[in-house]
User: What shape does this take?
Amino acid sequence: MFHKFKHLIFTMVNKIKEDKKLIENVDYYTISGKIVFTEKFLKERGKCCNNNCKHCPYESK
Assistant: This one.
């Protein structure tokens, strides 16, 4: 299960990088090699992805 989640995040990050240049410590930061999106970035994304992001500004559905 974790492998699928890790792949999903990797794919999402690569797609986002193609569309918009991500700025470290503004759009995301890393902890122990894991990417953590900031609330600013998630608000700009416009919707909840239901992955229980640490800084999600939306209510999970």
